[in-house]
Structures are given as C-alpha cells and as structure tokens.
Amino acid sequence: MESLPSTRKKGSKGEEIARKYLEKKGYRILDLNYQTRTGEIDIIALDRDIVVFIEVKTSTGRAFGDPLAWVPDWKQKRIVRVSRIYLLKKRLSGAQVRYDVVAVDPARRVCHVEDAFRPAGEFLM
Q1: Which of 5, 8, 92, 103 has the most neighbouring CB atoms within 10 Å?
Q2: In a domain, 2, yes or no
Q3: Rounded to two decimals, what is the model's pTM?
Q4: Could you write out the three-class secondary structure of the chain?
C-alpha cells in the first residue's frame, strides 16, 4: 500500500510550483523558506519595486475554498513579524511591501491572491 505524501514533501512541491508560477509572472525571487526563531516565510520576491512576502498553501482537495481562511489571523501576525526582521536585516526598511497568498491544488492549478492581507495598525520599522 502506497503511503500518502508527507505534509513537508507536499508543501515543498507546492512551493516549487508557486515559485515557477511567480517567476513566469516576472517576479524576482529573493529568498525561499526564510526562517527566524519567530517563524518562516515561504517565498520572498520582488514584483517590480515591491517586496512581496508570499505564503504558499498546498491544498489536498480540489476546491480552493475561501482565500480569507487560508491564512488565519495568528499566522498573518507571525508572517508580518518575520517580514519586519527580514526588512531590517536586508536594510530594506523604506521598501513598499505586500503580502500575497498562493494556493496550489493537487492538479497543480495555482490561485494567486495579491495583497491577501495587511498588517493591523501602522507598519513602522
């Protein structure tokens, strides 16, 4: 009996599909799986002059569901915290920033939501 793919393996495949999709759209990939003690951001890319922090969701079902439910509030806050660390370390504190979500389904279809969420309150560095 064949075992189901691990969550990590499934996630890595989804991230690879998302990365290729973003590159075809003209995004320049800056970092993959950027990690701090606070958390991780799957893909960090440049869309023209905007630094984009991208959460990749690999779905097991055929339907994408509600995009707002893909990244819960606690996860959004964690991504924002990690993005602030990234911007400080890379000396990009004045850069325009956006948070996107890319979902990949089992058929490798991609659903890209630009500006999927925004930090609560002021985004001060």
Answers
A1: 103
A2: no
A3: 0.86
A4: CCCCCCHHHHHHHHHHHHHHHHHHCCCEEEEEEEECCCCEEEEEEEECCEEEEEEEEECCCCCCCCHHHCCCHHHHHHHHHHHHHHHHHCCCCCCEEEEEEEEECCCCCEEEECCCCCCCCCCCC
